[in-house]
Amino acid sequence: MNKKAVALIFSILAIIILSMSMTAIFFKSVNNNNLISRRVHSIRAFWLAETGVAEAAANLPNSPLGDYIGNPQGCPTNTNCYYNTTSADVTVGNITYYRIDSTGSVDIPSGGTITRDVEVFVKVTPPEASNFGHAIESTGEINQLGAGVTINGTIDDFATINFSDLFGNSKTEVRNAADQIYDETSFAEPLIGVTWVDDADGGADLIMNGNLTGNGILIIEGNVLIAGTVTFDGIIYVIGELTTLGNATLSGTVIAESGVGIDTTVGGSVTITHDPVAIADALNFIQFLSYEIVSWQETG
What we know:
With 300 residues, the protein is of the alpha/beta class. The chain folds into 2 domains: 11-124, N-terminal domain of TfIIb, CATH 2.20.25.110; 129-286, no CATH class. The protein is built from 4 helices and 19 strands. The chain has helices at 3-58, 163-167, 171-176, 276-283; strands at residues 65-69, 80-92, 95-107, 113-124, 136-138, 142-144, 149-152, 155-156, 180-183, 191-198, 206-208, 211-221, 224-226, 229-239, 242-244, 247-256, 264-266, 269-274, 291-298.
């Protein structure tokens, strides 16, 4: 065999070996890319599950919940990203917990679905009814007019009142959770659950005329005059000047967060009774605004 033939054979062998090496490197690279891609999708599925937990906790006790996350929110093109949750209440003693099971899923273009599962226990605690210890309290002086005023419970005028300390949430958070939102011109029934009345024009008083009945939490921004017949069980919180001249039967507590030098006037035929049960019932309407995660585990 001449030298040229030997050289040709070795050249062919070298090319074959190099090709095999390049093929091996290529497939290893592809495999690594697939592993990296699956890892990225797995991380994405995990955060989808965590998103589901946050949404479920914010929307308790509603169940189940689910949503798709689109491309602008970080889901790759041609890929489906979504979460699904279920919630169930669990009572231990006199404490209510909610178990939230959340699954984050990513349908990948090459086929198949990558999922991650999270289980969380959430403790929900309404604000303490003991925060509201008086029949009526005001940051100003409380003036009682006439013999028709009956107050069953303590009176606290010139009080220091902090909304967040009382309700465990800011005014914005409670307003966002309101079942009804009115202003001076649209105020009416129903007054059930959390009712918020905006001070739309920044000056005119809200005049409560006619017959009104309700329960829960009634928060009024601006001055208010109770001139009609009002029956309410729960918490009335006025961010302004409060005047009563009509017929009112109020069970729970009445609070006036007024400015410096602004008094609260209670007249007419009014009965205000401090009622811890009515207060606790009212606070249950906002019990899901605050929650605490007491346990967390990944289950899949």
